[in-house]
Each structure stands twice: as C-alpha cells, then as structure tokens.
Design goal:
single chain; mainly beta; seven-stranded mixed beta sheet; four-stranded antiparallel beta sheet; 11 strands; 57% strand; globular
Length: 115
C-alpha cells in the first residue's frame, strides 16, 4: 500500500505562484508514474500533469508553460510549481501514483485563485 499526502495549497491572487508537494509513504518500492489532477466545483476531475519515474513529463494544454511538474525519487515526492495562476485554476488538486498496476490517490489540497 502507498499513502500519498499533498501539501502547499492555499489562496493566491491572479498572476501569482504556488507550489504543491505530494509525499508518498508506505511500500514505495518502484513507484512509477506520478501525476497531478484537479477537480473544479461542478466539473469532472482532469489531468494537470504527469511525470514518469525517469522524468518524462506530460501537461494539459491549459497549463503548459505555466506549471512545472518534478519529482525526487530519493524522497518519493512529486512537486507541482504553478506560475501565472488564473481564476480558472481554482480547484482541489490531487496527486496520484502508480505502482505495479495499482493507482493510489491523495486526499487533495485546495487551490483558490482570486481575481
């Protein structure tokens, strides 16, 4: 079992920056692709960014050029740096991680961007 705990959410003004972290604990051996997803009020959860164990990244078009995903395999932690934030980035952000075909989710952290 893998437990994921997000941190770093909060309130920020339009154009501001925020960083999220997600630390994995438990049986983290060979933790694979990790990612960030978000769910805005009244909408479905959507992909934000993913990163493989080797560092290959993938981003949603809506965040390309503004968000950066990274990970530290020695700390079993994935990060999301969010710049030039917009009100439409307001959502609960969830991290997930894949291990041997199982997908684990964190509890989510709220990000609110005020206009």
């Amino acid at each position: 079992q893998v437990q994921l705990v997000e941190s770093g959410g909060g309130l920020v003004q339009t154009g501001g920056s925020l960083g999220l972290s997600c630390a994995a604990s438990g049986t983290t051996f060979r933790l694979g692709t990790m990612g960030w997803y978000r769910r805005a009020a009244g909408k479905q959860r959507e992909l934000v960014a993913t990163i493989t164990r080797g560092g290959n990244t993938n981003y949603a078009d809506s965040v390309k050029g503004r968000f950066t995903i990274s990970r530290d395999n020695t700390k079993n932690t994935v990060y999301l740096r969010m710049n030039s934030l917009k009100p439409e980035d307001t959502a609960v952000y969830y991290c997930n991680g894949e291990q041997f075909g199982n997908v684990y989710w964190g509890q989510g952290t709220q990000v609110t961007v005020s206009s």
